[in-house]
Task: structure prediction
Amino acid sequence: MDNPRPEEPRIADPTYQDRDLRLNVVMTVVAICLLVTALTFVAMSRMFSAYRTRFEVREAEVSPVARERVVPETTALLQVNEAADLAAFRASEDAVKNQYAWMDREAGIVRIPVHQAMERVVEQGLPVSPEFLNNRTGE
Result:
């Protein structure tokens, strides 16, 4: 009974892994992956901001040929600065849809802002023509 338990013999070439992963190697690989990912994000954000500033400068400048060109009034013109033309067009459209104006002063017809017109339709409902009401009640 005093015999202690005999040790099991060790196999020289086991078919299984007899030790755990080395944690320091795993953590080093994870740290390197995170560092590469962070550096990639920083590099891409700087690259996109550089492209954005180049694009904005190129959009804002007008071609020297377009500045020097004299065009007769009878010919059609090409757009020289599309971004500025679009901005001016949108500003004029916003002014039309967001301001009051007389459409026909004698008839008393007024243009109102779009958001106010939508609120009125919600409150009062859509106008219905008498013809529609007559046809509907005649059924």
